[in-house]
Amino acid sequence: MGLFSFMFTDKAKYRAGDTIKTVQLAADNDSQVTLPLKNWTVLYFYPKDNTPGCTTQAKGFTSLMKEYEKAKIKVFGISTDTVESHLKFKKKHSIKITLLSDPKGSVAKDFGVKVMLGMCSRDAVILDPSGKVNKIHRGVSPKASPADILEYITDLQDNQ
Q: What pTM, to 2 d.p., does this model score?
């Protein structure tokens, strides 16, 4: 085992097919979001507010919000940044997605999202309406993931 391999050991609490237990995170609107919800939910984990890739991804989800809402899919961006940082990020870039703060990265780690140097890897978790993990996408593209995830879930909905 190499010196740093311990940082990459998969200690995920949840995998595809698992039902998640109730978890609460602070939202950018001074509320708490309790997961799971009773609809399709996207949890996209990202490294840091106001960085180029994270801004691209958040703007991509924002531009598709009407389509997500029409399909009754909730979208939440999650990072280790504070609620205050999220508020500034949203205001600066006109982001409409609800951003959640996971300051210790504990929820991220529950889904096997890597947290290094206080930043999450860029992964997306899809929860179905029963609270089960449908799929975990690792290393998603900041540019393509908003549309790809929407297409993936709407295809599932169409085949139900």
A: 0.91
Residue position matching structure tokens 């990072």: 79
Residue 54 resides in a domain: yes
Q: Is residue 137 part of a domain?
A: yes
Number of folded domains that form the chain: 1
**What is the per-residue pLDDT across 20-50, written as a single tens digit (0 to 9) for each?**
999 999 999 889 999 999 999 999 999 999 9
Q: Which domain holds residue 146?
A: 12-158
Cβ–Cβ < 8 Å for 76, 97: yes
Residues tagged active-site? 54
CA distances from 32 to 27, 65, 77, 85 (A): 6, 21, 14, 16
* Preceding peptide of 36 cis, ω within 30°: yes
CATH for 84: 3.40.30.10
